[in-house]
Amino acid sequence: MASSLTKDSAAPGTPGIEKTFFGHPRGLATLFMTEMWERFSYYGMRALLPLYLVAPGGLHLNAATATAIYSVYVSLVYLLTLPGGWFADRVLGPRKTVAVAGAVIMLGHLTLALPWSGSFFAGLGLVAIGSGLLKANISTMVGHLYNGPQDPRRDGGFTIFYIGINLGAFAAPLVIGTIGENVSWHLGFALAALGMALGLAQFLLGSRHLSSRSDVVPTPLTAEQKAATLRKAGFWAAVAIVFYAIVGFSGVYTLNWLLVPITIAGLVIPVMVIGRMKRDKELDRGEQSKLTAYIWFFVAAAVFWMIYDQGGSTVSLFAESSADNSVFGWEFPVSWYQSVNPVMIMALAPVFAWAWLALARRGKEPSTATKFAMGLLLVGASFFLFLAPLSIAEGGHKAAALWLAGVYFVQTVGELMVSPVGLSVTTKMAPAKYASQMMGVWFLAVTAGDATTGLLSIAGVDLNKTGIVALQAVLAVVAGFAVWMYRKKVKELMGSVN
């Protein structure tokens, strides 16, 4: 990476001005590497998770329950980005919050590495809490490196940052997945803890290159507010403990007592949060208009992630049971499928970053709404393609691995239309009052999508049936056309934001 750092001639006082990282502020390298190692730990564990849940040497659950747990876990990770953003805005600031988050994630993976099934869900909970604290704030710090929403490097910077995410995600299944499947599940989880430890060390060493804004607590709590917040948190924690103690000791407790409330919260809380922001009379007319436009992107992203994230559950479990997981006669671990998407991201993201800049210079770059519409059409197309291996399996044959690789490829192209663009537009459209929290709202779209998948699984819907896969594909295509049809109206609501 050192060879990519060059002198910059911009004005003094800009973060990381002495050197640049691929033409971007030097602090981007710190955040790039931190996110790379954090994603190595997260995606390594996530590649193992559904397989561990169904494996005879793991928890040996059925596929529907495994999909529900996986979806609820991912939903919870992104649901917790909202309090993670609030914690940075009101208590510690983004930089310190990310440091705390890294320690919590590392502890969570170490808990998963313990050879006891009883500690498994506690480990998942700790990883979810740490990930929630980290995700919204590290993306916010990327935004801090640039000179406002109109900085032409901003979208490209988020795309480079996205490459860091996918570099870690690519290596994780190859290392953690192989060890977990072939040697020991819990040793695989321990390797995830090591990855987070490396990421935390790198962040602490390189944080001097970050913007000074990352140390600021935008709206700190007063002493009275802190006391009131602690009282409320203590009250609701006590309610939860008493409730589950009663349910547990009464002998009626099942896993659904935990899963159902989380899935419902994943659907209700996003609506409540956006509704509260829309009712905030302190926001001016321009900010309210941007929030209205943002609702379109939020709903589109929720539909997108509902289908996309099934690549790690529905498609992965299909591969485990019904695919010929081999190339030229050489069989590979099922978890390796989770490396297909990130390697394609790394290959295609620079092309997209270059293309957006080239089109922007000519005044022909597609609007954000158009990009989202294209992403939805593509993720719908990926599930239409998934119908082919499903039909092959229903005929009693093993589906070729290339079918699944094709599904991941189409989803990858769609992801590049939605995810880095969504991160960037969120930082551009966020009201100043909700700086870090708005990034949490973006991640709530993932929560809503995965909560829907979890609720379907809990209700007993078999997501590997051709009918439900086709229905989801049609939903995505219809949503894509809706966004495209109203793209001009959305652009008007966005005001000066492109």
UniProtKB/TrEMBL annotation:
Molecular functions (GO terms): dipeptide transmembrane transporter activity; peptide:proton symporter activity; tripeptide transmembrane transporter activity
Subcellular location: Cell membrane; Membrane
Organism whose genome encodes this protein: Streptomyces caeruleatus
Biological processes per GO annotation: tripeptide transmembrane transport
Major location category of this protein: membrane
The organism's place on the tree of life at top rank: Bacteria
Sorted UniProt keywords: Cell membrane, Membrane, Transmembrane, Transmembrane helix, Transport
Protein name: Amino acid transporter
Recorded GO CC terms: plasma membrane
Cross-referenced Pfam families: PTR2
Family: Belongs to the major facilitator superfamily. Proton-dependent oligopeptide transporter (POT/PTR) (TC 2.A.17) family.
TM annotation in the entry: 43-61, 67-88, 97-114, 120-138, 159-179, 185-205, 233-252, 258-275, 291-308, 340-360, 372-393, 399-418, 439-461, 467-486
Recorded topology in the membrane: Multi-pass membrane protein
InterPro entries for this protein: Dipep/tripep_permease, MFS_trans_sf, MFS_Transporters, POT_fam, PTR2_symporter_CS
